[in-house]
Amino acid sequence: MTNTLKMRKKIIIKEFHETPLRGHQGVSRTMKRIIQHYTLKGLNADIKEYIKLCASCQKNKSSNHSIQQPMVVTTTAGRTFEIFFLNIVGLVDLSCKSNSYILTIQYDLSKYSTVVPLPDHTANTVSQAFIEHFVCLHGIPNSIVTDQGREFMGKVFSACCKLLKIKKINTTAYHSQSNGVLERSPRTSIEYLRHFVQNKKQDWDQYVAYAMFVYNSSVHTATGFQPHELVYGYPIEVPHTLSKISQKSYKYEDYTNELRQKMQESFKLAKDRLIDKK
């Protein structure tokens, strides 16, 4: 391999791995992003070596940190916002905006995730965030899944669910003998934030939107689709400096027909894959 080709591959891997819109993801997801644009021999081995030498990845990989384990459920939603998971993650550092917790919301079928910075995790704060960042944007779901934290088990949140006619499911922490869907959104969000706030920890909540962009634009291993694609019907195209993205032209009628057909096919494939993994 010539030095020119080696340098070009290194530049490509760096751009698809290290920028805030890429998020220092692992070998598999970095690989999937690159092969959408390039065909390069020996790319998998090069990505493995690059990530092995990435100082930020070695410092911040999840095995070095203790993070609350995810929850499981054994049912699978049949539409995008039918069932979703709520979880509270506590962060050590108080941000400049006085936030020290995050509320994570992940939708069962699509795996689409939303993260909301919070100043505390009282029932009032969590209920308000849930209404503003989910219900007002996506409507009222059939069911929600939470752990048995005080903010979810108290009268305020229970009354909120009762008022909206939402079935509330309480689960215990995940253990290796359980069956169900592993929800990795909280862990992935924390991993992302560690990469980009190492020297400015009080600014962590300014990077939350970028963390969710990375997560929702990455192909999920359980469904085989980007979470964004299962919600909106098309994958996110992340622009990069090395090539241009081609634009597709549509008529309104053709677009709606194609979108409806694609969403139906995608939902069926995603649900089948989720069921197979249980």
UniProtKB/TrEMBL annotation:
This is RNA-directed DNA polymerase. Residues 66-235 form the Integrase catalytic domain. Signal peptide: none annotated. GO terms for biological process: DNA integration. InterPro entries: Integrase_cat-core, Integrase_H2C2, Retrovirus_Pol_polyprotein, RNaseH-like_sf, RNaseH_sf. GO terms for molecular function: nucleic acid binding; RNA-directed DNA polymerase activity. It is an enzyme of class 2 (transferase). Its EC number is 2.7.7.49. Coiled coil: none annotated.
